[in-house]
Amino acid sequence: MKNYFIIHGFKGSNIENWFPWFKEKVDSQDCLCIIPQFPIDDKHHVYSEWEKILDVYHKDFHLMDENTVMIGHSTGSICALKYILENRIKIKKLILVSGFNNYLAPDEKDLHNQLNPSYYVDDDKISKIKDYVKEIVCIYGDNDPYIPQDVLKKLAKSIDAKEIIIHDGGHLNEEAGYKTFPEILKEI
Prior knowledge:
Layout: E1 2-7, H1 19-26, E2 31-34, H2 47-60, E3 68-73, H3 75-87, E4 91-97, H4 111-115, H5 123-126, E5 133-141, H6 149-158, E6 162-166, H7 182-185
Parallel strand pairs: 1-2, 1-3, 3-4, 4-5, 5-6
């Protein structure tokens, strides 16, 4: 059975953006789409807490394997990448939407800057993702209001991913008009 995992981003929800639309498109007898709700309160919005939830699907239910397509959005992208690396999970495809690594916003007091570093992967280890994933795609808007273009491109280059840049896509979230996301279906 094919399975898809979507990992939402910072302060996100499993029922926002294009996630429910995607689930409706792919769920069938042969495919299962799992979109966990991760904790988003400040105390639990850290990688170790998100890892516990992914462990249930991977270690308890054995749902991550060579038939898995993992999709991360924003911070969820680096969470997916880190989880695959740490657990040495071989999967079919990794799609990172508006993904980044090791980026701190200009405002050092920003909550993102306090919580996101727990998800980051060391630059010297990140390229090992190719040992576990057959195909990697990075999709991002050319006008992302949160993540600079050089940071988005740096992640894609560091993991030798296919890049898809969407004109006026913003952060590819509901705020940017993404309740549906037909472009991602072409990649699965």
